[in-house]
């Protein structure tokens, strides 16, 4: 197959050179050799296994942007981008290490005490701990102020009760950052993030591994907290009530990371489709010889190029600490919308074979859909952008 990383023919941005480029190559090899051969099994089981996480940890693919003193590789978001791009280019999109690396671990690095960092980050880096973040509840998705999960202080413990749903890595995760209300009367100011190490507590239950239309191999679950007791030292931050601010501060990276998955899948879809239309014959010629095919692919390649240039600029700004929440929302919404469009058009160019699961474009079509929903729906992104007008 044509290399998705080269399909747009663009020069590499400065942040993707040297060691980041080497990490991309290494991660691509790992995904192709260790994960891709077992991917159908994970899709069928609707979950990865712990062994794959431990192998990714041993290969240095977990916590790449965490400092070396906490077991990470001391990189930046550029390193995380390289890993997520490798996942997308190889086509093992259900491997939930993007969330673990660039969402869960950073909360602990940025808001954790020294003791918390030493306790949890090295194990997140080896894969002994698998991370998840539990914000969404049956009654609170877009509007996180409606979270009902309660954390009540009881001596030197919190007692957590409530339920969460749609939680990525929910069947395997054993370190879960739970969005709770420590003071329900204070609205957003009564929200706190508390870490639950599920192996250490009683009263924690995993619900169903939810039956999704795509991203089958990624376990997505309901979680139940029935008076789960954790030490008060599991609070993230030096005082209660900071949870909402912490969430808002981390959202730009979470949103940019969805853009990473989007641009990587766009490039893979183009590479696969260009190969396909060169091979497939109709009316005595290759499908690529029809002007419609060329025009369609010309449009998609142009839009993908615009998307990649925008994405690269966002990463450069993020590494310099200058990616504002509005631009991150633009990246999430625009790139995931473009992903949906490109994958749909590419499937069309495959004809009936595009609808068959044995062709990768079929799975990409199912996997792409959720990108417009999670991490804040694209409507919420437009709301945030609208506020800046
Ligand atoms: C596969 C998957 C994985 C997920 N992983 C996680 C995870 O790891 N952790 C986690 O906490 N959550 C996770 N989620 C949850 C996800 O973030 C939410 O589904 C999402 O934020 C939307 O919330 P909701 O489903 O309650 O939709 P709702 O909030 O009920 O929205 C329904 C519709 O109304 C629209 N809408 C809502 N408010 C407004 C408004 N003010 N203006 C205009 N339109 C509006 C929405 O855009 C949407 O179209 C995941 C979801 C999925 C599907």
Automatic annotation (TrEMBL):
Residues 19-128 form the Acyl-CoA dehydrogenase/oxidase N-terminal domain. The keyword Ion transport does not apply. Residues 241-389 form the Acyl-CoA dehydrogenase/oxidase C-terminal domain. Keywords: FAD, Flavoprotein, Oxidoreductase. It comes from the Bacteria. The keyword Transmembrane does not apply. InterPro entries: Acyl-CoA_DH_CS, Acyl-CoA_Oxase/DH_mid-dom, Acyl-CoA_Oxase/DH_mid-dom_sf, AcylCo_DH-like_C, AcylCo_DH/oxidase_C, AcylCoA_DH/ox_N, AcylCoA_DH/ox_N_sf, AcylCoA_DH/oxidase_NM_dom_sf. It holds the Pfam family Acyl-CoA_dh_1. Its cofactor is FAD. Residues 132-228 form the Acyl-CoA oxidase/dehydrogenase middle domain. PANTHER family: ACYL-COA DEHYDROGENASE (PTHR43884), ISOVALERYL-COA DEHYDROGENASE, MITOCHONDRIAL-RELATED (PTHR43884:SF12). Belongs to the acyl-CoA dehydrogenase family. This is Acyl-CoA dehydrogenase family protein. It comes from Mesorhizobium argentiipisi. The lineage of its organism: Bacteria, Pseudomonadati, Pseudomonadota, Alphaproteobacteria, Hyphomicrobiales.
């Amino acid at each position: 197959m044509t290399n998705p990383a080269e399909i747009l023919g663009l020069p590499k941005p400065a942040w993707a050179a040297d060691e980041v480029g080497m990490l991309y190559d290494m991660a691509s090899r790992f995904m192709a050799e260790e994960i891709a051969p077992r991917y159908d099994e994970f899709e069928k089981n609707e979950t990865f296994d712990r062994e794959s996480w431990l192998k990714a940890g041993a290969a240095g693919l977990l916590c790449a942007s965490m400092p070396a003193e906490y077991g990470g590789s001391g990189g930046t978001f550029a390193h995380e981008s390289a890993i997520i791009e490798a996942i997308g280019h190889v086509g093992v999109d259900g491997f939930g290490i993007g969330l673990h690396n660039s969402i869960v671990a950073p909360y602990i690095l940025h808001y954790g005490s020294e003791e918390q960092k030493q306790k949890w980050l090295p194990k997140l880096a080896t894969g002994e701990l698998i991370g998840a973040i539990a914000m969404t509840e049956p009654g609170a998705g877009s509007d996180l102020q409606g979270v009902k999960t309660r954390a009540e202080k009881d001596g030197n413990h919190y007692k957590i009760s409530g339920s969460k749903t749609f939680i990525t890595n929910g069947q395997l995760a054993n370190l879960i950052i739970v969005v709770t209300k420590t003071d329900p009367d204070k609205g957003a100011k009564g929200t706190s993030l508390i870490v639950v190490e599920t192996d250490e507590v009683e009263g924690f239950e995993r619900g169903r591994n939810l039956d999704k239309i795509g991203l089958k191999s990624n376990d997505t679950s309901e979680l139940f907290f029935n008076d789960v007791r954790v030490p008060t030292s599991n609070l993230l931050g030096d005082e209660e009530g900071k949870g909402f601010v912490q969430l808002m501060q981390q959202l730009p990276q979470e949103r940019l990371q969805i853009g990473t998955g989007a641009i990587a899948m766009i490039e893979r879809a183009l590479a696969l489709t260009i190969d396909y239309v060169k091979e497939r014959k109709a009316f005595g010629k290759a499908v690529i010889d029809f002007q419609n095919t060329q025009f369609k692919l010309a449009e998609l390649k142009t839009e993908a190029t615009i998307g990649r240039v925008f994405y690269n600029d966002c990463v450069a700004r993020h590494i310099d600490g200058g990616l504002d929440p509005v631009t991150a929302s633009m990246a999430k919404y625009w790139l995931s919308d473009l992903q949906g469009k490109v994958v749909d058009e590419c499937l069309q160019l495959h004809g009936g074979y595009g609808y068959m699961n044995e062709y990768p474009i079929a799975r990409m079509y199912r996997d792409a859909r959720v990108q417009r929903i999670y991490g804040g729906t694209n409507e919420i992104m437009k709301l945030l952008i609208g506020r800046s007008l």
